[in-house]
Amino acid sequence: AFSFVAASKVINARCVRSRPGSRRLKDTPSLSLSLQTALTKTGAMVNNASILRWAVYGILTELFHNIIVRNVRRFAKSEAQAAAQFKLRQPARSEIAVVTGSTGGIGSCIARLLAFKGYDVVLCARDENAANRIMADIRLALKDSLVDGPIEPPSVYFVEYHADDERSALQVASRVKEISIETNSKLSVLVNNAGIMGHSKQATIKVNLLGPVFLTFALLALLEESERAVVVNVGSSAHLRATGVVEDLGDPSGPSVSWVDALPTTADEDLSTYAKSKLAIMQFSMLLRHWLPTRTHVHVVDA
User: Residue 295: helix, strand or coil by DSSP?
Assistant: First the structure.
């Protein structure tokens, strides 16, 4: 469009500079106007065609390249890296890693990765059948892996764990201590990954908050025996919409009752209690970080 307007100005300028007495285009307004109108319309048509061509060959091509091509390349690269990572493992390191909720999702991936890092992995979950399948997969992958060091692969164990029962945390601690003695290894990693969503409000708080709290304290003595240990509390961005943790417990002068047991057993349909539980687990991590560094080498992180 700019080129056609410039051409129109050049033509008018040349006509004005015609010799004196000659019939100039400037003296014929209708002709000059018609020419400018024709040039403007033609310019608009070309401009619209240019915009369309730019949209088709420019924007769409750029979007295709950025969204599809790059993501496909990135995915292929990550898959290749993951395959290489899971094919080449590190030697057994005489350290134990406990992972809760490890029979599916990110829990099973974390357990597999820790095994390839050389840790003896303890799968803590409710479903023994699912845990056996995960253990078989990890053991097979370890058997087919490459290693620069001792050939003997790390061990994988299963311990039944119910996050909504504080007694289960003590049972896990007892079994992990036995494994530590049997293998002459130290517990150096605890991943509190188990969690539920959409269940009752009471169960949500028990599993997502109290479960990690009880298990962390049950295993703390074993973690402190390691030169460097880490506790990983798996959270969620849902904590950003939490408004509080403890709900109205009723008349304080009434019968003594745990605030958790006082929570309603109705379903957490809006996931508000789930959000509160994830906020609370972050606050638990903050308290541990404030308390632990003065007396231990255990580090606490949120994931």
Answer: coil
Residue whose pair of structure tokens reads 């632990």 in the numeric block: 292
196 and 264 Cβ atoms separated by less than 8 Å = no
Which H/E stretch holds residue 95? Answer: strand 95-100
The helices-and-strands tally (H runs, E runs) of the chain is 10, 8
Tokens 């479960």 locate to: 211
**Distance between CA atoms of residues 297 and 289, nearest Å:** 11
SS in 3 state form for 11-52? HHHHHHCCCCCCCCHHHCHHHHHHHHHHHHHHHHHHHHHHHH
Phi and psi at residue 298, to the nearest 5°:
-85, 125
Distance CA 238, CA 196 (A): 13
SS3 248: coil
Question: Please, are residues 297 and 226 in contact by the beta-carbon 8 Å criterion?
Answer: yes
Q: CA 29, CA 23: separation in Å to the nearest integer?
A: 12
121 sits in which H/E element: strand 120-125
- pLDDT for position 264: 78
**Beta-bridge partners for 301:** 232
C-alpha to C-alpha distance for 114 and 102, rounded to whole angstroms: 12
Separation of alpha carbons 105 and 198, rounded Å: 17
Name residue 234's amino acid: V
Query: Could you report the per-residue pLDDT of 133-192, keeping only the tens digit for each?
Result: 999 999 998 888 776 666 788 899 999 999 999 999 999 999 999 999 999 999 999 999
Give burial (CB, 10 Å; 0-12/13-18/19+) of 121.
buried
